[in-house]
């Protein structure tokens, strides 16, 4: 059976540094940090009191009040980016076979705020259960994909991928595979996350996963820097319209890039720590390249997972060196989490968008905030430090790794008919 | 407008996103005000909270209009 080619025909993003895909990309190329003190709740007693919040955003500009009230912020974010991507792609449910258009959405956690607030409310009472009827449908991690299908009448395959910080790369790879196999014509895929609440910051603080550089939020996410001390929590969403090539051509859609391949693997090592030699990271990049039938030296850019945690950045760098050999020194590497913070289940989607724009524009967005070399990291690698670099980018690889030891890599390449 | 009706109206306007002028004693939550079954459950819960009463399920099932809600609350408030 001949596999179909799969392209990207629409993008949408809502991030701490830009509220549309194009604004996000512009901020990425300028090296803007999205970190600032937390405004969402009183964080004064928390070890970490800053995060990368979405800014200048009012859901009522996008959804009517009644509709929005029944959605957790993670689902609201999903609806906003899905709309941007659907509009951007020109997908018209009235003119297409909606049974062949699906939604695959990633979220690491789902409706954390809803869960937190409902349980707080319950605990204030005398034990009489008075749970809101919308509690469960607002909170569950799959509701965003359901809501998107309801809005656009897309009746194709529909589900949610949950693999912590790899979730939305899984969504993209699943969409790619289903289209390749001829099971659908197009998908709205991506992911969203909204965890800058007491339970999110407190929970990740307890894991010692978050940076505590409260005196300088905007420089706290500093991947590969010797003084990095954890990731900075982000929030937001990214959506991609992933479409079968002939279907896209037939309707005259604009094509941003082509999906080259995808890989998935597990560390099988520890619930939160990465494998120290990056074994899972190495095997997932290898599988992505095999899937794409590409050689090592065809990769121009790696958008790394690079969360700015002490262990993760070392393990990923080891894996890149080991896998790519000498070519590791020729390619550009960057962690856009230095700017956006870590969007958890949405990270894969927004970083895929960074790769797609990079391929389209031949620009590598930087790793900002680098100051001091870490003796445990090979600084001869080109981490695209502090400023964007121009180079021809034919192929970009996006790595995402999640708690639980889930690893996913996706490859995006220039579209050549 | 009675105090109870005005409080009930306020809850309905807030939860169903309708205009205050649409809310009459005769208005049916589902037929006139666009509520689905989950919205109706939520309204009953909000009435319970606002008026500090408990509305048993078998009674709640009989409350389908604004007037029926106001009447039930008037008869059962503490």
From TrEMBL, chain A:
Q: Say which enzyme class the record assigns.
A: transferase
Its gene is fabF
Q: Which CDD domains match?
A: KAS_I_II (cd00834)
Q: Does the keyword Acyltransferase apply?
A: yes
Q: Where is the Ketosynthase family 3 (KS3) domain?
A: 3-414
One GO cellular-component annotation of the UniProt record comes to: cytosol
NCBIfam families recorded for this chain? Answer: fabF, PRK07314.1
Q: Which UniProt keywords apply?
A: Acyltransferase, Fatty acid biosynthesis, Fatty acid metabolism, Lipid biosynthesis, Lipid metabolism, Transferase
Which pathway does it take part in? Lipid metabolism; fatty acid biosynthesis
Q: What is its EC number?
A: 2.3.1.179
| Gene Ontology terms, MF aspect | 3-oxoacyl-[acyl-carrier-protein] synthase activity
Q: Which GO terms describe its biological process?
A: fatty acid biosynthetic process
Q: Which Gene3D superfamilies match?
A: 3.40.47.10
Name the UniProt record assigns to this protein: 3-oxoacyl-[acyl-carrier-protein] synthase 2
Output the PROSITE patterns linked to this UniProt entry.
Answer: KS3_1, KS3_2
Spell out the reaction equation it catalyses.
(9Z)-hexadecenoyl-[ACP] + malonyl-[ACP] + H(+) = 3-oxo-(11Z)-octadecenoyl-[ACP] + holo-[ACP] + CO2; a fatty acyl-[ACP] + malonyl-[ACP] + H(+) = a 3-oxoacyl-[ACP] + holo-[ACP] + CO2
User: Which residues does UniProt mark as catalytic?
Assistant: 165 (for beta-ketoacyl synthase activity)
The family note in this entry says: Belongs to the thiolase-like superfamily. Beta-ketoacyl-ACP synthases family.
Q: Does the keyword Lipid metabolism apply?
A: yes
TrEMBL record, chain B:
Per the record, the pathway is: Lipid metabolism; fatty acid biosynthesis
Subcellular compartments: Cytoplasm
Record Pfam families = PP-binding
Coarse class of the protein's main subcellular location: cytoplasm
| Residue numbers bearing the O-(pantetheine 4'-phosphoryl)serine modification | 37
Q: Which family does it belong to?
A: Belongs to the acyl carrier protein (ACP) family.
Per its record, how is this protein called by name? Answer: Acyl carrier protein
Q: Which organism is it from?
A: Cryomorpha ignava
Question: Could you tell me the gene encoding this protein?
Answer: acpP
């Amino acid at each position: 059976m001949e596999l179909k080619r799969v392209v990207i025909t629409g993008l949408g993003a809502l991030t701490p540094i830009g509220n549309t895909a194009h604004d996000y990309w512009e901020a990425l190329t300028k090296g803007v940090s999205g970190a600032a003190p937390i405004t969402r709740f009183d964080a004064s007693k928390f070890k970490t009191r800053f995060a990368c919040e979405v800014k200048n955003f009012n859901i009522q500009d996008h959804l009517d009040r009644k509709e929005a009230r029944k959605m957790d912020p993670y689902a609201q974010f999903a609806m906003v980016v899905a709309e941007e991507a659907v509009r951007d792609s020109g997908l018209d449910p009235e003119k297409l076979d909606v049974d062949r258009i699906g939604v695959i959405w990633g979220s690491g956690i789902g409706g954390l705020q809803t869960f937190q607030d409902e349980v707080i409310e319950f605990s204030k009472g005398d034990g009489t259960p008075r749970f809101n009827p919308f509690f469960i449908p607002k909170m569950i991690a799959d509701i965003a994909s359901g809501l998107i299908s309801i809005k656009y009448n897309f009746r194709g395959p529909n589900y949610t991928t949950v693999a912590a910080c790899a979730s939305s790369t899984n969504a993209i790879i699943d969409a790619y595979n289903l289209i390749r196999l001829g099971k659908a014509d197009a998908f709205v895929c991506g992911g969203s996350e909204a965890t800058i609440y007491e339970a999110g910051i407190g929970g990740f603080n307890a894991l010692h996963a978050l940076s505590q550089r409260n005196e300088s939020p905007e420089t706290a996410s500093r991947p590969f820097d010797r003084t990095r001390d954890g990731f900075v929590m982000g929030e937001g969403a990214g959506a991609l319209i992933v479409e079968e090539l002939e279907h896209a051509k037939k309707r005259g859609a604009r094509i941003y890039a082509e999906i080259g391949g995808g890989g998935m693997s597990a560390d099988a090592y520890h619930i939160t720590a990465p494998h120290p030699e990056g074994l899972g990271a190495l095997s997932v990049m290898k599988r992505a390249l095999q899937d794409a039938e590409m050689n090592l030296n065809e990769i121009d850019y790696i958008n790394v997972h690079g969360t700015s945690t002490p262990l993760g950045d070392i393990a990923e760098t080891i894996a890149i060196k080991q896998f790519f050999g000498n070519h590791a020194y020729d390619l550009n590497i960057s962690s856009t989490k230095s700017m956006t913070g870590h969007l958890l289940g949405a990270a894969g989607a927004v970083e895929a968008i960074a790769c797609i724009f990079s391929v389209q524009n031949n620009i590598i967005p930087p790793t900002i905030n680098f100051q001091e070399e870490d003796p445990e990291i090979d600084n001869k690698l080109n981490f695209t430090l502090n400023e964007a670099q121009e180079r021809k980018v034919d192929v970009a690889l996006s790595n995402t790794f999640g708690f639980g030891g889930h690893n996913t890599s996706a490859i995006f390449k220039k579209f050549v008919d | 407008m009675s105090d109870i009706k005005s409080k009930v109206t306020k809850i309905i306007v807030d939860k169903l996103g309708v205009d205050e002028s649409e809310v009459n004693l005769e208005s049916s939550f589902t037929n006139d005000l666009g509520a689905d079954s989950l919205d109706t459950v939520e309204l009953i819960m909000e009435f319970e909270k606002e008026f500090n009463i408990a509305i048993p399920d078998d009674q709640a099932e009989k409350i389908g209009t604004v007037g029926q809600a106001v009447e039930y609350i008037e008869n059962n408030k503490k």
